[in-house]
Specification:
Elements (H helix, E strand, L loop, with lengths): L1 H27 L12 E6 L1 H4 L11 H8 L4 E4 L30 H13 L8 E5 L2 H5 L12 H4 L18 H15 L4 E5 L9 H18 L3 E2 L1 H4 L4 H5 L5
Parallel strand pairs: 1-2, 1-3, 3-4, 4-5
Helix pairs in contact: 1-3, 4-7, 7-8
């Protein structure tokens, strides 16, 4: 019973806190763009933490189910895939069909962006007003498979002229800064009126606190360069790595 109460309270606190943060970040963009509707069309991109809620956000084990229950919207759809990373490999290519549910060369946020754009162009996806991207966990967790993820200097990546960003081959987006800039630039060009909100990874037992701090600091720098809001889930969410290590018994 204690475990059930703990999980229920954690879920509720996470949902309320997260909705408040998204609402503030969403509202902060209204002054620079034409007014957003109070019930927007929402798109989610990310990894398994979002994927488990289902493409239609109907599975209650996912945070996006609870988000959809409490955040006003007209439509909400997830393009997230389990195992997805921001960063690419030397073998990454455009692939809108692959769904491996694990780390793979083509299981990257960029291909979720391509799927979103294709759905928008064929009329099955409304023009999004709000795009939330929750990724980075697998980049930090499987750093041995993405060894360049945290290596490239952010300022050097953003020294590349804006018009050159989307000319970069997909198999050259090896760092977090390169991949995040590419994906967000593509989204901004395709959906210029959309508000994009980035989420950093939650605390986890899968990687050290030091790696989380290093990777999140890099994401903060990138978000600042992109002039996009980033919600620090490791700070505002009630999920804690220390609590994950504890064993709760009925």
């Amino acid at each position: 019973m204690q475990l059930l109460i703990y999980r229920s309270t954690l879920r509720w606190w996470f949902c309320i806190t997260f909705c408040c943060c998204v609402a503030m970040a969403y509202a902060s963009g209204r002054s620079s763009r034409k007014p957003f509707p109070t019930a927007p069309d929402i798109v989610l991109l990310g990894d398994s933490n979002t994927w488990i809620g289902g493409d239609d956000c109907s599975q209650e084990q996912g945070w996006n189910y609870w988000f959809a229950q409490h955040f006003p919207h007209r439509s909400i759809r997830s393009y997230a895939r389990s195992g997805a990373t921001w960063t690419h490999t030397l073998k990454t290519s455009r692939d809108e069909q692959q769904n491996t549910n694990k780390l793979a060369d083509n299981n990257v946020v960029s291909n979720q962006v391509f799927r979103l754009i294709s759905a928008y162009r064929n009329g099955t996806q409304p023009t999004p007003h709000l795009i939330i991207i929750a990724a980075g966990t697998n980049d930090f967790w499987f750093l041995q498979a993405r060894p360049s993820a945290l290596l490239q200097d952010v300022s050097r990546v953003f020294a590349l002229p804006q018009q050159e960003v989307l000319k970069t081959p997909l198999n050259r987006l090896l760092s977090l800064a390169q991949a995040m800039r590419y994906d967000c630039t593509l989204l901004q060009q395709t959906f210029p009126q959309a508000r994009i909100i980035l989420l950093s990874p939650l605390q986890s037992t899968a990687f050290s606190a030091e790696r989380l701090a290093e990777g999140t600091a890099r994401m903060v720098q990138i978000a600042q360069q992109l002039r996009l809001p980033l919600i620090r889930q490791d700070k505002i969410c009630s999920l804690r790595a220390d609590d994950e290590r504890k064993k709760f018994r009925l």
